[in-house]
Amino acid sequence: MKLRFVTVDVFTNRRFGGNPLAVVLNPKDLETTQMQQIASEFNLSETTFVLPPRDLQHTAEVRIFTPRAEIPFAGHPNIGTAFVLARLGEIYGRAVGDTLSFEEQAGLVTVEIQREGDAVTGARLTAPQDFTRGPELPAHVVAACCSLNSEDISSGHHAPCIASAGLPFVFAELTSRTRLAAASPQTHVMADHVPMDLAGGIYLYTPAEESEIDYQARMFAPLHGITEDPATGSANVAAIGLLAALHPESDIRLTKTISQGVDMGRPSLLVTEAEKRDRRVVATHISGSCVSMTEGTLNLGW
Fold this sequence. Notes:
The protein has 302 residues and is α+β, with helices and mostly antiparallel strands. It contains six helices and 19 strands. It folds into two domains: 2-127 and 289-299, Diaminopimelate Epimerase, Chain A, domain 1 (Roll), CATH 3.10.310; 132-286, Diaminopimelate Epimerase, Chain A, domain 1, CATH 3.10.310.
């Protein structure tokens, strides 16, 4: 069996930045176990498998795997997969336009292609689920998971909490950029207090010191085999939902630019948007640029 794949760097306009993604383009004869083995072999934050859609009105079914598990939704895999398909111009014999719809476990994900002239440069997605805010977690627990002190976590806007727009994460605002840089995941503590069925990982953020961005962020998901993620669309699209929900205005369109991956040498830039009406967040979006990296063939004995 031969499988074609493409890799791209997502949420960056420079090679060797952003979050790498592998996209497997003809996996329709694979079993779930085999997809997981391939994702573990690539050992990237996520690998996607592009299958024929169940409903022909949609572009494709997309399955997403971390090195250790399949997940229902993720941001950078959707942005990167849409970018790859738009550059190819077709998938399974059908033309790909500027609006793609992906069938995923979390629901239908709509992705709009971004261009500069005729060149495909990136994409913008709409989260597949409404923003939801879940329970709060003790500051000392989140701090211990990230090698921090309770005093490093700011409670001025919100206590550490779980939130989701398709995949739940723990969110905590830190007191400074210095404390964000000092954070480091403690896998055994996370296994005890933030298991995979509770949240996909822990997302830390703080107001940015740079004038051109709004926030700096880091995300740790060692239980998924991701010690630190360079760019986490599914977390950032929930983060903008949380920021909009906390905003005092009952109706607002909020846009924030978030930098992630800087402390691990893979700087990423994500543009997040939220729409809030009558005090309810009704839609969240995330967008960013992509850069093609490699193309190849997996030669498998299956």
